[in-house]
Amino acid sequence: MIEGPPSAVRPLPGTPVTFRWRKWDGAPHWVHEGVFLGSDEWGDWIGQRDGELSARPGRQIRADGPNVTLVPPSGDYACTVNATHPRIRIYIDLAWDVRWSETERAVIEGIDMDLDVVRALDERGLFIDDRDEWDEHRVRYGYPAPVVTHLESLAVDLERRVGADEAPFDDATAARWLRELASHPTPHRP
């Protein structure tokens, strides 16, 4: 069994947070603006309002509608549920060591591990994405065998659970946190 990240002091609900991804080799990846919403039995929830920034080297986008992201205690994925996005309902980034920063306040950081589980609203439906990138990077970066085995198995399990609408991948769980997001005023960012 893979152990989760150590517990950390969470900010108060409504606190602006930064979600910072990197790749296995330490290279910067996506950085998302958001707000801490709270925790439940599934983990910590981060919200992102319509228009909030997501950026990576060479690209910046604004959220296309509100969304909420679950970070489970295991730290091996981050599940984003979009409220109104026109193409994607659920996007799960398979990850490694996602946790609250030990050195920066109100920052979540983790390693993006390429594989994604996606529930699209178009003919693509539910699928595991970026297998080609996963195959390339696990060789290039030398992902350890236990990490590969765990994440490949997890991707298949998450795809099954999303397809079965199991909590926390069901609409009711996300709706609760989307309501919570709507109850917080837009945070001021320095």
How would you sum up this structure, described in words?
By secondary structure, this protein is α+β, with helices and mostly antiparallel strands. The chain has one domain (16-178): FomD barrel-like fold. The chain is 22% helix and 40% strand. The protein contains 3 helices and 10 strands. A 7-stranded mixed beta barrel has the order 1-2-3-6-7-8-9. It is globular, with a radius of gyration of 16 Å.
Q: Work out the radius of gyration.
A: 16 Å
CATH topology: FomD barrel-like fold
Name the CATH superfamily assignment: FomD-like
Instruction: Count helical runs.
Output: 3
- Which structural class do you get from the secondary structure elements? alpha+beta
Poorly predicted runs: 1-7
Q: Helix amount, in percent? A: 10-25%
Mean pLDDT: 92
Structure characteristics:
disordered N terminus; seven-stranded mixed β-barrel; single chain; 190 residues; FomD barrel-like fold; 40% strand; alpha+beta
Task: Explain briefly what this protein structure is.
The protein has helices at residues 131-140, 145-163, 171-183; strands at residues 16-22, 28-40, 43-48, 53-56, 59-62, 67-71, 77-82, 88-100, 107-120, 126-129. It is an alpha+beta fold.
